[in-house]
Specification:
335 residues, alpha+beta, Jelly Rolls, Arc Repressor Mutant, subunit A, 2 domains, seven-stranded antiparallel beta sheet, five-stranded antiparallel beta sheet, 13 helices
């Protein structure tokens, strides 16, 4: 029987380097950058304080996120309860002890873990650990299974023959710059890649549908909701109003409000504000020495600076000015 190679041999760390999200020696900066694509969490060095170099490579393909994270030093990570996504993690190198989906698991290049929405994730990472992470949005999994509440077996055995097609697909994807670009540029190809990655994983990893009682129909969205969200995304920086959104969705205002309440559990204007905040956060994370908070606020459709600052702090747990100072401070000092 042929031995299955360690997954680090299949997915070398350099394969995602061209999608580097950041490099940093500042722990607060590292935490904020990772939170921007995952969720707020705690990072605590296991040992003396360190300015070891951290990095994250990350790319999104539809409802699937792929990335690699290294902290350069022993680190304790506490994510708390996962938001609406399933998190898969194994080590390209090094090892970790994790609490995933209420189970204690050792993670290395041959053994991974899976934790689901509403479940805790904690990890103690070795200093040489580089994680490979896969984020599966709950909505994407629902779209391909019909189950909103779904539990995958937490222990991920990368030597399992049933998982080799999934690993092979991951290998092909992250080692093909042309395929990654195509998936990013073509929504239909991205949807096909999303479906294939999720289907291959579920074919190789045991899972159970949990009680879906009380699940709303919100994920099977009517066309008016999808049209409204597409219009808002395209015009997020413009001073659009509810009537504009309803007109773009080709329905009366009341119909649109009812549809959003039923399928999204919030109003169109609340969703528009969330889009604006997400764009502002992304712009501040990509700031340079010429970036100002006021300029970002205006560029993202916020005419009232005080309200923007308050909403940003509630959403991300930090003032926009504090985010900007952490990012451009070193540039200003060396300029």
């Amino acid at each position: 029987m042929n031995a299955v190679p360690a997954v680090c041999a299949l997915l070398p760390p350099q394969c995602l380097h061209q999608h580097r999200l950041f490099e940093s020696r500042d722990l607060d900066d590292t935490r904020e950058r990772i939170a921007g694509v995952m969720q707020p969490h705690t990072l605590q060095p296991n040992g003396a304080s360190t300015d070891a170099p951290s990095h994250m490579d990350f790319i999104r393909i539809g409802g699937v996120g792929l990335g690699a994270i290294g902290f350069g030093a022993p680190m304790h990570v506490d994510v708390g309860l996962l938001h609406d996504y399933h998190l898969l993690m194994f080590c390209l190198r090094g090892r970790a002890r994790t609490l995933a989906d209420d189970q204690l698991l050792v993670v290395d290049p041959r053994h991974g873990m899976i934790s689901g929405p509403g479940k805790p994730f904690l990890a103690d990472l070795s200093g040489d650990c580089e994680q490979f992470i896969v984020r599966l949005d709950r909505a994407a999994v629902f779209a391909h299974t019909g189950h909103w509440n779904l539990r995958l077996q937490p222990a991920l055995d990368l030597g399992n023959a049933a998982l080799q097609p999934w690993l092979a697909q991951l290998q092909m994807l992250v080692n093909s710059p042309a395929l990654l670009r195509l998936a990013q540029d073509n929504a239909l190809i991205a949807a096909d890649m999303e479906r294939l990655l999720i289907s291959l994983l579920l074919a190789g990893q045991p899972w159970l549908p949990l009680d879906d009682a009380g699940v709303r129909e919100r994920m099977i969205s009517p066309s008016c909701v999808r049209k409204a969200e597409a219009y808002m995304e395209a015009n997020v920086a413009k001073p659009i109003c509810l009537a504009d959104i309803a007109q773009a969705a080709s329905v009366p205002v009341r119909t649109l409000l009812d549809a959003f309440q039923r399928f999204r559990e919030h109003s169109p204007m609340q969703r528009l504000r969330e889009m604006r905040l997400e764009r502002a956060h992304a712009q501040l994370l990509a700031a340079d020495e010429n970036t100002s908070v006021a300029g970002v606020a205006l560029d993202c459709g916020f005419a009232h600076f005080g309200r923007f600052s308050e909403a940003y702090r509630r959403r991300f747990g930090i003032a926009p000015s504090a985010t900007l100072k952490r990012l451009i401070g070193p540039i200003q000092r060396t300029g």
